[in-house]
Write a structure and sequence with these properties.
It is a single chain. By secondary structure, the chain is mostly helical. The radius of gyration is 22 Å and the shape is rod-shaped. Helix 2 runs parallel beside helix 4. The chain has five helices and no strands.
Length: about 110
């Protein structure tokens, strides 16, 4: 279930009665910053995935849906590693080998 801003305020305010008005902006600021960081990371992940897929398409042509799905499932760190590795790929089989070697690993 979700905690609303009102629920949070009601729970926290009595604990910090002497600092009335200072607590919620601080909590809100922290949550806002965390949300921004998450959004930035997701944006970077999506952008890196799209770039990697475009580079592989340019190098080897259209990738099958399974391979595309595997690439979309990689972590940001794995995508960055793949981006470097693809510079050395000579054939589509190199990509397949790389994906098998890095399947399920987190960098």
């Amino acid at each position: 279930n979700r905690v609303t801003q009102e629920d949070l305020s009601q729970a926290v305010t009595p604990l910090f009665a002497s600092k009335k008005g200072e607590v919620m902006p601080t909590i809100a600021e922290t949550l806002r910053k965390e949300g921004i960081q998450i959004g930035l990371r997701q944006g970077r992940q999506e952008g890196t995935t799209a770039l990697t897929l475009r580079l592989l398409h340019k190098r080897f042509g259209t990738l099958d849906k399974r391979t595309q799905a595997q690439i979309k499932g990689l972590s940001l760190e794995q995508l960055e590693d793949l981006g470097e590795a693809l510079l050395d790929f000579q054939a589509p089989q190199d990509l397949v080998k790389w994906l098998k070697a890095h399947h399920g690993k987190s960098s």
